[in-house]
Amino acid sequence: MIFLTVGTYPLPFDRLIVAIDLAIKEGLIEEEVVAQTGVSNYVPKNMEYTNILEKEAFDCFFRRASGIISHAGMGTITMALDNKKPLLVMPRMKRYKEHVNNHQVATAKKFEELGHILAVYDIKDLPDGIRKVKNFVPRKRKASPHAVANRIRCFLNSLSESR
Amino acid sequence: MKKQGALRICVGASAGGHMNQLLKLLEMSKSWPQLPSFYVTTLEALAEKLVQQGPVYVIGECNRQRPLKALRVLMRSFKVVIKERPDVVITTGSLPLAIVCLSAKLFGAKIVWIDSIANVERLSMSGQIVRHFADLFLTQWPELARNCRDVEYVGELV
């Protein structure tokens, strides 16, 4: 099963959903696809979909999926890395009113460059991305949340002391 | 006037990646002097995840293209702030939480802003606003902290 998500961002991302729906119809994707479509307007004809899944259902589909296709949102990128899932992203773009700016393009490029995800930036490259993602092994990411938490602990301690 | 007792900590994040990053931070927050007193997020579906930890307020989504929704978020933020009177707000963004920061700051709260890791090339738009009044401002990319005295990089949440 492939899980398609365009996140919870309050703007539609029909471009990706339409393209995937078409890819299923044309036989480019043979696996079952389940989608979270957010506030998108297009009604998929070839896959099961929900606007916004409850967290539990979302996690469940995510874990079951053999691959993830999504917008270049950090929520999905993080989850894919945590769950070691191959992820193909297409960034939301300002030009199509999918986001208020193009920061998703920069996010996609950075994480693609680091070997964590695959990315396409144009609908016409999507079929190629779909073919590649099947065998993609994401590079493990090292984060340091403890360092951030420690910095905030110091800040909170200094606040407590000054009271 | 000095306040007595424990710090009232508010933590919050928009649904999606912002919330993922906040949850990663909270997993590491055991060493903080206090646990958060309450939580703020933007979608009901997210509230359930947080509700075991303390009261959760859902203020709704908005972006800068939807000024009316932003106004509603502002009203809700003020309500939350007036009721809970946080001493400090800790957030990973985005715009709805920047509005919470602004509301809380007006009532004297300290602001800790962690700019989302999604902002690779420049700070987020919300972050650029909050930066003017934040008490601790963190980015998750070392390049973005370079040459900025008020922006710190200490690591990344994800």
Structure in words:
The complex is a heterodimer of chains A (163) and B (158). Chain A has 163 residues and is an alpha/beta fold. Chain A has a single domain, classed as 3-Layer(aba) Sandwich (Rossmann fold), CATH 3.40.50.2000. Chain A has six helices and six strands; from the N terminus they run E-H-E-E-H-E-H-E-H-E-H-H. Chain A has helices at residues 14-25, 55-64, 74-82, 103-113, 126-133, 145-161; strands at 2-5, 33-36, 48-50, 67-70, 87-89, 118-119. Chain A is globular. Chain A starts with a strand and ends with a helix. The mean pLDDT of chain A is 95. With 158 residues, chain B is of the alpha/beta class. Chain B is globular. Chain B has helices spanning 17-27, 44-51, 67-84, 95-106, 125-130, 142-145; strands at 9-12, 38-41, 56-58, 88-91, 110-114, 136-139, 152-153. Chain B has one domain: Rossmann fold (3-Layer(aba) Sandwich). Chain B has a seven-stranded parallel β-sheet with strand order 3-2-1-4-5-6-7, with helices on both faces. Classes of the chains: A alpha/beta (163), B alpha/beta (158). At the A-B interface, helix 3, helix 4 and helix 6 of A face helix 1, helix 2 and strand 5 of B.
| N/C terminus separation of chain B | 39 Å
**Rg from Cα of chain B:** 15 Å
Write down the CATH topology of chain B.
Answer: Rossmann fold
**Major beta sheet, strand line-up of chain A:** 3-2-1-4-5-6
Rg from Cα of chain A: 18 Å
User: In whole angstroms, how far apart are the ends of chain A?
Assistant: 55 Å
Beta-strand content estimate of chain A: 5-15%
Tell me the major beta sheet of chain A. Answer: 6 strands, parallel
CATH architecture of chain A: 3-Layer(aba) Sandwich
The shape of chain B is globular
CATH architecture of chain B: 3-Layer(aba) Sandwich
Map the helices and strands:
The complex is a heterodimer of chains A (about 160) and B (about 160).
Chain A (H helix, E strand, L loop, with lengths): L1 E4 L8 H12 L7 E4 L11 E3 L4 H10 L2 E4 L3 H9 L4 E3 L13 H11 L4 E2 L6 H8 L11 H17 L2
Parallel strand pairs in A: 1-2, 1-4, 2-3, 4-5, 5-6
Chain B lengths: L8 E4 L4 H11 L10 E4 L2 H8 L4 E3 L8 H18 L3 E4 L3 H12 L3 E5 L10 H6 L5 E4 L2 H4 L6 E2 L5
Parallel strand pairs in B: 1-2, 1-4, 2-3, 4-5, 5-6, 6-7
